[in-house]
Amino acid sequence: MTPVIIIGAGIAGLACARRLADAGMAPVVLDKGRGIGGRVATRRAGDLQFDHGAQYVNAHGTGFASVLAALERAGTLAGWADGTGRTHSVGVPGMSALPKALGAWLDIRQNAQVLRLVPDAGGWLLHLADGTLRASRVVVTVPAPQVAALLGADHPLVAALGAVQLAPCLTLMAAVAGPAPFLTRKDTDDPLSWIAQDSAKPGRPQAEGALWVAQAGAAFSAAHLDDDPATLTNRMLHLLCDGLGATPTSIIYASTHRWRYARVTQALGKPFLCSNNGSLYLGGDWCLGPRIEAAWDSGTAIAADLLARR
Fold it and tell me: Where do the DSSP E strands lie in 223-307?
């Protein structure tokens, strides 16, 4: 039986595993995807790359600030002036460098989707697509709307998630020939609420044309979440061309990605949920707010509570 299994290799899961590993434990992290980091991600298409999830990371608290400072000293993060007078931290050579650094030397098993969690003698039985695992304690860091599928809608902790709300975000990635009119544009009233010249971030590889990431606002994302890929890409590309003053003939590459649970619009209000016996934890950015730091704070708080119960 594994002492601790963490479901989800996003920032919350990685922060929890990192803290436990530093304290001498050997947690196992399971993730259904091929990459780690959740929405802190970098998409590659041939020689092109795009930060198609979180655009940058900043710290408000001293704990996360020390993590970012260490990563910057190691060359994993660098400052990015976004053209508005603000400077943010971004991963080098992409945002995915941040979760890769947090996950270094951890036991992370990818393409491992957990289908169901069932109470078992002394812990939990995890049903995966290709078998089962047993764990004394389980930490679940998936988006709040996905928890009920794992535990069952009648589980006591699921009821506590009723107030949590997350909104989708649609992202366009495009390579566009010609001059770049700006580095970033933020307009919450525009269908494309965020447009960034991704290739202008530090440490990015050279590419033909400027590489742009455009993220839709809440209304557009909700309205077009289920568009077929070609239709969605065409819709968003038309809007991007309007915003850049570009023509369709200047498009070198374009694709889209759907983040179904991207933005925390109503947080839980505390860093995690825990069963009475301390064998099951739920956490993620949805506990505290729509920031990478919120996910890190949640995962770190779970680890602290686990260690206090040893």
Answer: 251-266, 273-274, 280-282
The predicted structure's pLDDT at residue 207: 85
Tokens describing residue 294: 């919120």
Provide the pLDDT for residue 1: 85
Are residue 274 and residue 259 in the same domain, yes or no? no
> Do the domain assignments include residue 98?
no
Q: What is the CATH number of the domain that holds 207?
A: 3.90.660.10
**pLDDT tens figures, 123-144:** 999 999 999 999 999 999 999 9
Instruction: Output the CA–CA distances (angstroms, integers) from residue 10 to 200, 234, 274, in the order listed.
Output: 26, 30, 19
The residue segments making up the domain with residue 179 are 166-265
User: Mind giving me the DSSP string for 150-186?
Assistant: HH-TTSHHHHTTTT-EEEEEEEEEEEE-S--S-SEEE
Residue pair 89/51 in contact by the 8 Å Cβ criterion: no
Question: Is the whole-model pTM more than 0.90?
Answer: yes
Q: How many domains does the chain have?
A: 2
Beta pairing partners, 50: 43
Q: Please check whether residue 55 lies inside any domain of the structure.
A: no
- Above 90 in pLDDT, residue 122? no
Question: Are 283 and 299 within one domain?
Answer: yes
Report whether pLDDT(206) > 90: no
Dig out the tokens for 271 from the structure.
Answer: 């860093």
Residue 289 lies in a domain: yes
Q: Kindly state the helix (H) or strand (E) to which residue 134 belongs, with its residue range.
A: strand 131-140
State the average pLDDT over residues 70-80: 97
pLDDT tier for residue 194 given thresholds of 50, 70 and 90: very high
In total, the chain counts a number of residues equal to 310
